């Protein structure tokens, strides 16, 4: 890696009146985004829970991490009415921080990455989103806002709904929507989920100001990702579904997947995309088991819960390229976590004055030191 390629460029001060900042240029930078969704079934994490299987920071280091949870607390009446247990979210954030900033990776890129900072985390009953960004990118984040929409009991409580985080990185706007939609495997229950989606898109709103003008609605942002326990099921009988799952017939199951049908119908989810699914359904498992619910003959009277891909990650419009879409194998709850990696271009504007300030700054000196260390390491490996 050359010194020039590792340097970060200064951000344009749009409010500056200095004549030296009147000349500016624009270019594109490519950044990698990790996104994951996990319904943890009200189970609090152990202090020694290893998040590496999920985050995979050594093999696939990214610049932004977005981790969405559902049911971080049991959906009991007290929790649904707003008596949130904040301690469990602190535990999750502590585990995420530890994994992202661990320096024992074999990857040189990961070893020399800047410390990650929590950009925003927010809990609404059982829904929790935690957004992290590389420390050297943090100064270029602006217009950070969140919006919560409850779609649960009485159409407004937060046991179902969404928590959305948006921000601008350099000159490009991002919006991440963590959702938990209506449950149910009966015929017609998918209409409730479609209604939740419509409600979330219409009721989520953000401040538009100040300068430059920021979008007020979800889909008006440049880069948009929807993640969560969307709860869409497979429109086949329990017996047919289990038989096809046992034969790994993902394509045949996908033909009857409710969410895929909605994406093709271009109604509630018009303009949204999902990558190909080549992994087993993520719901519903016996906790701490590799067996799907309803397969233990010794357990009588269990409700039917046919396997389904409840946990999904979608993106809207253009500008995002997906490189990975898979599941992880944690047995913490009755769901398996799902993760994706995207790359996207970000518009960056520099000024003449901005360059001058940057090259005289302490951050420039730190960049040089880090780059030289990395070059020496690469040289030793090539000898």
Task: Describe the model.
This protein is an alpha+beta fold and 383 residues long. The chain has two domains: 26-349, 4-Layer Sandwich (Deoxyribonuclease I, Chain A); 356-383. Helix content is 26%, strand content 27%. The chain contains eleven helices and twelve strands. A six-stranded mixed beta sheet has the order 3-4-2-1-12-11. The model is unreliable at 1-22 (pLDDT under 50). Keywords: Hydrolase. This is Inositol polyphosphate-related phosphatase domain-containing protein. It comes from Daucus carota subsp. sativus (Carrot). InterPro entries: Endo/exonu/phosph_ase_sf (IPR036691), IP5P_plant (IPR045849), IPPc (IPR000300). Belongs to the inositol polyphosphate 5-phosphatase family.
Distance between the termini: 16 Å
Mean pLDDT: 86
CATH overall fold name of the largest domain: Deoxyribonuclease I, Chain A
The assigned CATH architecture of the largest domain is 4-Layer Sandwich
Keywords: Hydrolase
Family: Belongs to the inositol polyphosphate 5-phosphatase family.
Pfam family, one: Exo_endo_phos2
Protein name: Inositol polyphosphate-related phosphatase domain-containing protein
